[in-house]
Design goal:
It is a single chain. The protein is globular, with a radius of gyration of 19 Å. It starts with a strand and ends with a helix. A hairpin with a 2-residue loop joins strand 1 and strand 2. The protein has an 8-stranded parallel β-barrel. A two-stranded antiparallel sheet has the order 1-2. Strands 5-6 form a two-stranded antiparallel ribbon. By secondary structure, the protein is an alpha/beta fold. It has a single domain, classed as TIM Barrel, CATH 3.20.20.190.
């Protein structure tokens, strides 16, 4: 069983086994919509892929974190979305051209370009901070052809990441998911794209249990795919939209709030956003969202 609680003003979740990871992501029509923080969440003076930003997010609402690993010149996995550090730090150059120690001369910048006091963390530092606090959705950046094997080595027994059971793998294809599975990574969940019946059928034929899958359905809930979502829900699979290329880009704050409410009322099980803080004051319970949906339907005469 997963225990959610609030400790030291943080909204935390303790996940220490595959079963608890499955419980956290299992579909339940009465669960609140979960807000996932893309790149750890962003606020002024709180940069992406930063431990302090993740902690700030958890001080505002329950969340889990999509994070982006890249390898340094000396083989240390750090958190950085881009191959080049120019956009997110006060330095410039490829992550892979610096040692970890060399990277520590730079400071992280927030989305507006403000230089902060925060440094580039290693992935293990992030995992250590997050144990008994949250879950990580580990993206797969272009770290080279050896990336899948690197992840396998780290996640299997004896690997540096093995003790951290709160890790999900975000994969780009059935081939990637099956590579992990066939090489013994069987105690994790996989975030996979299932936005068509073709995707569904491929995973349905695979040996990966549905209990170990969370479905990314792209930018928004599509009414024409209700049957697909129903099939996923029947198998206990939660569905996630990712709005960082869409609703997150709406300029005016009032318009963006309306865009967020539209996404919430569509009731995916999970919404991934750059700005989880903006959801802290929005309704996320199913009962509240059903009421909003009914009010909206009455207003337009449905």
């Amino acid at each position: 069983m997963v225990f959610c609680q609030q400790i030291e003003e943080l909204h935390t979740v303790s996940v220490n086994s595959l079963q608890e990871l499955q419980d956290y992501f299992s579909y339940n029509p009465e669960k609140d919509v979960i807000i996932s923080a893309h790149r750890g969440g962003m606020l002024p003076y709180f940069p992406e892929n930063c431990i302090e930003s993740c902690e700030k997010t958890l001080s505002l609402l329950p969340s889990f974190f999509e994070i982006d690993p890249r390898l340094t010149k000396d083989g240390i996995m750090v958190l950085m979305h881009d191959a080049d550090i120019k956009r997110t730090t006060n330095g410039t150059g490829l992550v892979s051209d610096f040692t970890y120690e060399e990277l520590q001369q730079f400071n992280l910048k927030d989305r507006e370009g403000n230089v902060t006091q925060y440094k580039i963390p290693t992935i293990v530092e992030m995992f250590e901070w997050g144990k008994d606090k949250t879950v990580f959705n580990l993206d797969n950046k272009d770290n080279g052809s050896h990336t899948w094997d690197y992840y396998i080595k780290q996640l299997k027994e004896g690997g540096e990441w093995y003790p951290y059971k709160n890790i999900m793998l975000s994969v780009r294809s059935i081939e990637e998911a099956m590579y992990y599975w066939e090489h013994g990574v069987n105690d994790r969940m996989f975030c996979v794209e299932i936005s068509s019946m073709e995707h569904f059928e491929k995973y349905d034929r695979s040996p990966i249990p549905w209990r170990q899958i969370m479905a990314y359905i792209r930018l928004t809930v599509d009414p024409e795919l209700e049957d697909l979502y129903g099939m996923l829900h029947e198998r206990g699979v939660s569905i996630m939209t990712s709005i960082h290329p869409s609703a997150d880009r709406v300029g005016r704050e009032s318009d963006r709030r309306i865009a967020y409410l539209r996404e919430l009322v569509a009731m995916p099980d999970i919404i991934e956003t750059d700005y989880p803080s903006e959801f802290a004051v929005l309704p996320r319970s199913r009962d509240e969202l059903r009421m909003l949906r009914e009010k909206a339907a009455k207003r337009i005469g449905y």
